[in-house]
Amino acid sequence: MRPDDWHLTEDVDDFLARAGDFLRSRPGPHVMQLTWAERVRARGAEAFGTEAPVFGVLERAGEVHATFYRLPPHGFGLSPLTPEQADSLAARLATLGHSLSRASADHGTATAFAEAWQRHTGATSKLRDTQLRLYRLGTLTPPEPLPTGRGRVLGEQDLEQVIFWCGEFAKAVGEDVSIDADTWADTRFADKRYTIWETPDGTPVSFAGMNPMIGGQIQVDIVYTPAHLRGHGYAGAVTAEVSRAALAAGARDVVLFADLSNPTSNALYQRLGYRTLTDWAVYDFAYAEPEVSQEGDRQADRAIR
Asked: Cα dist. 105→5, 160, 280, 293 in Å?
């Protein structure tokens, strides 16, 4: 696989024209590719900062084999790659002078790329402690019995509550983001549809969000219950409700990520009918400081004087 088989573009429409059918053919493993490409298409590249997004497509003889996106500050994401494909991409990006802070993908792809990136750039890589599992819904099995109360879609009157809960969720999972009324529209949380579980007296106790449907697939993204309300079955009830809403909206596939360090949530999703699709990993990259030669030191000293 040659490095120049990778076609790079800053035009998301070009990227989707080339790779859209490929991504939609396996929407589960490509969930992050589809999600971020659609966000860039819907909001415009300028909404994501001064550094333009970059998308890549691996093509040979008119056939797409793999893709990537680079979207500062949201990172660098890869579709499933073979070690050979990962090496060819690392070689291409290193030759072009790209500097990557991290890479995320299914565990095998992320590991292969991290090793290739180190070979081609000298960067050291570190696997993040937080590792995720991607699940896909099989047959939805709501919990029995359900806690008292009901699920409902959040309305405009609930926006203040949503903003607060999303901020609490972001802090709980370590996301470095400011979420308030002023920043809300620019966050990844604003384009979701939310479902809450409320007690019989109308008190919201748990909520879950789902991304817009892309390629016949909906990702359940954010399931949160405040700490003092956990242990009553609210998370299971609201996850079942949002999953049912995704199916009712016409989704052929419903997926979600879970933190592998949380056995409670993983067991819950499995009881609801979610089945393992793949494990996910993120590697952070670090680069050695460039050494300054003695001649460089003398030149710098003369410049200072």
From this structure: 20, 34, 6, 38
